[in-house]
Amino acid sequence: MNTPRIAFIGAGNMATSIVGGLLDSGHPPQMLSAADPFPDSLAKLAQLGPVVVCKSNAEAAANADVIILAVKPQVMAEATASIARAAASNDALVISIAAGVTIDAMQLHLGSRAPVVRCMPNTPALLGCGASALFASATVSELQKRHAQAILAAVGIVRWVPTEASLDTVTALSGSGPAYYFLMMEAMIDAACKLGLDRETATELTIQTALGAARMAQESDVDLVELRRRVTSPAGTTERAVNSLEDDQLRTVIARAMQAAQDRAVEMARDLG
């Protein structure tokens, strides 16, 4: 169990990124198995290394210590039912990366005592710089928590949250967050073009600026407020721009957007059962 057998139910982009991260971190490929209804997805996954490709969910999960459900929320009920027998036989940890599907909903098919971890990852995991939040059911052991931590750490940072409801907030923050930054960058590029720059130059400068700001925030020993203060010279161009953003209630706009995302996450959980 120091090196768990891990089965992936679904071989889409997120599953592929996690498999790639695990292989890069030294996890033996023969300890990884996967099933997916689309042969092209399995073929893409197999290009990363000699993982075990299976014809059915039950086959992939048969000997697994950890089963990762990397499927769409709409097919989660079918997916959990297909691996329930194997999960129970192995006392396997089940990790779900599907938004909106609660632990209670999964345990309807897996059994009320099944150890389940819900995970909210985000798309930068595809590049190994994801941000994932985890919440465990009461039946998850400490060893299983360590396995979940290690698996998701292969594609970025991992944080445990205190309640399952906290995952709805994480969905609004880091789950949906990349789209907020993309939109901001789109707006900056469009504005620069209106001010006279060509689109290629505006795009390159915008992306590099975003990357540089993120790295400064990550690597600096001061907080964001101080970093912003250091860039904002009194009576300068940045101060005028920042004051304009504050006058236009940027903080309120962002708060409303995140509230809308959180509300939708709650709605999805209700609609999915």
Explain this structure to me?
By secondary structure, the protein is of the alpha/beta class. The protein folds into two domains: 6-168, NAD(P)-binding Rossmann-like Domain (Rossmann fold, 3-Layer(aba) Sandwich); 177-269, Orthogonal Bundle (ProC C-terminal domain-like fold). Helix content is 55%, strand content 13%. The chain has helices spanning 13-24, 39-46, 57-61, 76-90, 103-110, 142-153, 166-175, 177-194, 199-219, 224-231, 237-247, 250-271; strands spanning 6-9, 32-35, 52-54, 66-69, 93-96, 116-120, 130-136, 156-160. The chain has an eight-stranded mixed β-sheet, sandwiched between helices.
* Share in helix: 40-55%
CATH A-level architecture of the largest domain: 3-Layer(aba) Sandwich
| Largest beta-sheet characterization | 8 strands, mixed
Derived structural class: alpha/beta
Here the CATH topology of the largest domain equals: Rossmann fold
For the record, what CATH class of the largest domain applies?
Alpha Beta
Oligomer: single chain
Q: Got a strand count?
A: 8
So how many helices?
12
The string of secondary-structure elements, in order, is EHEHEHEHEHEEHEHHHHHH
Low-confidence stretches: none
Approximate shape: elongated
As laid out across the biggest beta sheet, the strand order is 3-2-1-4-5-6-7-8
Mean pLDDT: 95
Note the gap between the termini: 33 Å
CATH superfamily of the largest domain: NAD(P)-binding Rossmann-like Domain
Query: Beta-sheet strand percentage?
Result: 5-15%
